[in-house]
């Protein structure tokens, strides 16, 4: 639990800091936590996955340090090198590509090491293509405006990537293949968050709210597994650990890909309250609709989790559910986590209401 909280703190640090060097330190330290958890389990295939990730991490760090070295003179020191640059130089492009690669793994995909095991080759290919879109977009926009054909290509690529993730994940989820369903939602989403921050979009509070939702789901997951053990319920660890954590990231993928093609024209008819929230939070109305749908989808996964665990089967074959008091406590905790996410998301609106 302590390692998890450390990892969460480091991730929030990545969101809040605007210094490339500090971000590198945060992400590199988080890697140490992940390796500790992986090698503690001594599962050979997980260790092999992390060994391959380690090789890429070293390469990403080399890119970042090289980029910082090239551009250091313009900012006085590495520590003052910002992530949000007015224009893109060779050094900044290297830093951006390195950060996207380094941040695409923790904590969402690589944190629960089991989610990397048995991932289908097709999903790995889609994930790899999707992971390359942000740095490719930045390289295309280096110092100049993007050609209309380039924008169209980026738009189509993002939509195809997101639609592919949606359909594959939904199909696996319907088949109750939670491990495979979560495997389709892989990589690069944290890298996309950093990419958005570098574009100067007002989404820091949005990213933090989603991280809170995911982190609370992790804590609740540990409570559920502990309660199932205490109740003597036989549970499949993969089914109770993977889909709880990964499906909220599907929403994150939606939001970040939408920003790639922003600004998006608002739908012709928008409820007044939605428009007010959109103005107060500076979030595109279509993006806000996706967020609300995603949060309700997130809640539905909790309901699915409770159906799976509470109706579990005792190891001796007798059906027995988790005690009602524990079930109610877990449900209240999940609702609290979602409420916290909403409050963080709507902070600008709340501040505006208080002023009025």
From TrEMBL:
It is found in: Endomembrane system; Membrane. Residues 86-291 form the NADH:quinone oxidoreductase/Mrp antiporter transmembrane domain. The chain crosses the membrane at residues 20-38, 50-70, 85-103, 124-146, 152-174, 181-198, 204-228, 249-266, 286-306, 326-346. It comes from the Bacteria. Its main location: membrane. It is a multi-pass membrane protein. One of its GO terms (cellular component) is endomembrane system. Pfam families: Proton_antipo_M. This is NADH:quinone oxidoreductase/Mrp antiporter transmembrane domain-containing protein. Keywords: Membrane, Transmembrane, Transmembrane helix. InterPro entries: ND/Mrp_TM (IPR001750).
């Amino acid at each position: 639990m302590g390692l998890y909280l450390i990892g969460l703190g480091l991730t929030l640090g990545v969101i809040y800091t605007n210094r490339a060097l500090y971000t590198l330190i945060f992400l590199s330290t988080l890697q140490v936590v992940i390796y500790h958890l992986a090698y503690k389990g001594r599962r050979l295939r997980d260790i092999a996955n992390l060994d391959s990730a380690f090789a890429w991490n070293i390469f990403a760090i080399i890119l970042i340090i090289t980029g910082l070295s090239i551009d250091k003179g313009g900012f006085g020191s590495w520590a003052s090198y910002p992530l949000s640059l007015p224009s893109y130089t060779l050094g900044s492009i290297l830093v951006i590509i390195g950060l996207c690669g380094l941040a695409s793994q923790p904590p969402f995909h690589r944190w629960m090491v089991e989610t990397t095991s048995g991932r289908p080759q097709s999903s790995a290919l889609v994930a790899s293509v999707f992971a390359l879109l942000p740095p490719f977009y930045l390289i295309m926009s280096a110092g100049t405006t993007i050609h209309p054909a380039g924008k169209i290509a980026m738009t189509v690529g993002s939509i195809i990537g997101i639609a592919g993730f949606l359909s594959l994940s939904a199909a696996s989820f319907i088949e109750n293949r939670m491990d495979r369903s979560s495997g389709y939602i892989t990589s690069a989403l944290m890298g996309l968050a950093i990419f958005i921050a570098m574009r100067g979009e007002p989404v820091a509070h949005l990213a933090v709210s989603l991280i809170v939702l995911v982190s609370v789901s992790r804590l609740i997951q540990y409570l559920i597994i502990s309660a199932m053990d205490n109740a003597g319920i036989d549970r499949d660890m993969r089914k109770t650990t993977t889909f709880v954590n990964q499906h909220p990231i599907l929403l994150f993928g939606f939001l970040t890909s939408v920003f790639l093609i922003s600004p998006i024209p608002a739908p012709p008819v928008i409820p007044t309250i939605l428009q007010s929230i959109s103005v107060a939070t500076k979030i595109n109305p279509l993006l806000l609709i996706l967020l609300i749908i995603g949060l309700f989808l997130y809640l539905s996964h909790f309901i699915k989790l409770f159906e799976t665990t509470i109706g579990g089967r005792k190891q001796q074959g007798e059906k027995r559910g988790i005690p009602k008091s524990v079930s109610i406590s877990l449900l209240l905790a999940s609702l609290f986590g979602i409420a916290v996410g909403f409050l963080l998301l709507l902070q600008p609106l709340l501040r505006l209401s208080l002023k009025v």
